[in-house]
Amino acid sequence: MASGLMSCLAARLGIAEPEVLRKAEEYLRLSQVKCAGLSARTTETSSAVMCLDLAASCGKCPLDRAYLIKLSGLNKKMYQSCLKSFECLLGLKSSIGIRDLAVQFSCTEAVNMASKILQSYKSSLPQTQQLDLDLSRPLFTTAALLSACKRGWRFSYSTKEEKEDNG
């Protein structure tokens, strides 16, 4: 039954790659074992949709998030929460880079500065701490991008003020 549901949902989402479908079915089987505590908040359909979402993102297959949420039958907040829980419980690591984050928040001009901030932070630490440091974790990338955006905003804001004062 789950395989039929999965293939039906995949067809509705336009997923034709068999690898993505196999990966989604694997995630669904794992979720039935590892994510049993989430079953009170999710239905079989919503679980299948989230597994398809995770498999498609691993396979670099873009999907319409709004349509996924609609198919799942959950509201946006609940869908995102359950998807993140599935991701963690299934042991999937979603590494979103600085560039991806910058595109999402429309601040691509801050990417280079954010990379420099991360490198500066890493070089300021003692050698022993640098070995265990993973700068690709979302905490570090988000903080670096936020700092870069704030610095860039302050800079652009101060240059506008100077132009207005001079002009």
UniProtKB/TrEMBL annotation:
ORC6 second cyclin-like domain residues: 96-151
GO cellular component: nuclear origin of replication recognition complex
Keyword Manganese: no
Segments forming domain ORC6 first cyclin-like: 10-93
Compartments where located: Nucleus
Listed GO biological process terms: DNA-templated DNA replication
Listed GO MF terms: DNA binding
Matches recorded under Pfam families: ORC6 (PF05460), ORC6_2nd (PF21913)
Main localization (coarse): nucleus
Keyword annotations from UniProtKB, A to Z: DNA replication, DNA-binding, Isopeptide bond, Nucleus, Phosphoprotein, Ubl conjugation
Assembly information from the UniProt record: Component of ORC, a complex composed of at least 6 subunits: ORC1, ORC2, ORC3, ORC4, ORC5 and ORC6. ORC is regulated in a cell-cycle dependent manner. It is sequentially assembled at the exit from anaphase of mitosis and disassembled as cells enter S phase. Interacts with DBF4.
Family classification: Belongs to the ORC6 family.
PANTHER family according to UniProt: ORIGIN RECOGNITION COMPLEX SUBUNIT 6 (PTHR13394:SF0)
Protein name per the record: Origin recognition complex subunit 6
